[in-house]
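Recall the central idea of this unit: under ordinary conditions, the amino acid sequence of a chain determines the structure it adopts. In this exercise we apply that idea directly, starting from the sequence alone.
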Amino acid sequence: MANIVEGSIFTKSSSNKTLVAEISDFGPDFHFMLLGEEYSSSGLCVKTRSFERTGQLSQWYLNCVDTDANGDVQFWTLRPTNLTLARWPSLKGWKMIVFND
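Accordingly, the structure predicted from this sequence is:
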């Protein structure tokens, strides 16, 4: 799927509870996709460190799109879905920022 990315791509700031990446790091075929019936928003999935063993993905929904005065996207902010928070409660309060480079 074009909306699954490797967790190792992100720069992690535990003190700010933030994961940061640039959209180009996700590859040329990446695009945000609808996460399912629970969310009317698009998002992405991240392969967890234990993915090879468990097959589990964390899901992040598109929370905000920041644009400049010309309407060009500067960055996207995503938050973990309820399903992800149920699996990994420690992600509560975390956000993901993906810069449009």
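The first strand starts at residue 4 and ends at 6.
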